[in-house]
Amino acid sequence: MAVNFQALAEEFTKFYYAQFDSDRSQLGNLYRDHSMLTFETSQLQGAKNIIEKLVSLPFQKVAHRISTLDAQPSSPEMGSVLVMVTGELLVDEEQNPQRYSQVFHLIPEGGSYYVFNDIFRLNYS
Amino acid sequence: MAVNFQALAEEFTKFYYAQFDSDRSQLGNLYRDHSMLTFETSQLQGAKNIIEKLVSLPFQKVAHRISTLDAQPSSPEMGSVLVMVTGELLVDEEQNPQRYSQVFHLIPEGGSYYVFNDIFRLNYS
């Protein structure tokens, strides 16, 4: 296929984290009613519930830094993309970043992509 | 849907890591010709290439310990499952485990599942 999955994943995550870190209430367009988010031990379904959860997270300032980003096509025919990110999260006035792992499953729709699956975990040591 | 995705993912990963840690040359049945493995910066396709890569890894003894395991259905209709694992890897005589993150995308086939996507990354700090 002609799609460059790695470049697409890099473009998506760059946009996603920039939007998350500046105003995460505006991420709703990236999810659909059947989209799922696992955030630590919480499980949410649907754009509205997912955004409510993200907005409710107990920090004001947040910055994501990507350490590794890997992408693969997630189906032989439909152009969907699986992305795994490992990175660091810096919140509020904390000096020490927290390491995290996150998976996005992106589904093509009308020339763009939406998030069908989103799984986020902090890496405790 | 009636499938318990979390239980299925736990059963799969338990089997996968037990087989990996005892004899990883026998994992070939879990992959197909169109399966993909990203292992750190290496990208492989096909059961044969994937197993060659896994067997070539430079350790004799290996043990995986799961820290977190999350699962979601990866499509509205076909019963496929997305799994994200964070865990610790202990190799040979090393005393300090290495943290890792891994994604499996499992596709149903004949009453069982095979691995279509497999992405593995050590978490460097």
Automatic annotation (TrEMBL), chains A, B:
What keywords are assigned to this protein?
A: Cytoplasm, Nucleus, Protein transport, Transport
Q: Output the Gene Ontology cellular-component terms.
A: cytoplasm; nuclear envelope
Q: Could you list the residue ranges forming a coiled coil in this record?
A: none
Q: Does the keyword Transport apply?
A: yes
The family database entries (Pfam families) matched by this protein are listed as: NTF2 (PF02136)
Q: Does the keyword Cytoplasm apply?
A: yes
**Where do the NTF2 domain residues begin and end?**
8-122
Q: Which GO terms describe its biological process?
A: mRNA transport; protein import into nucleus
Q: Where in the cell is it found?
A: Cytoplasm; Nucleus
Recorded hits in PANTHER family, A to Z, give: NUCLEAR TRANSPORT FACTOR 2
Function summary: Has a role in nuclear-cytoplasmic transport of proteins and mRNAs.
Official protein name in the record: Nuclear transport factor 2
For this protein's source organism, the top of the classification is: Eukaryota, Fungi, Dikarya, Ascomycota, Saccharomycotina
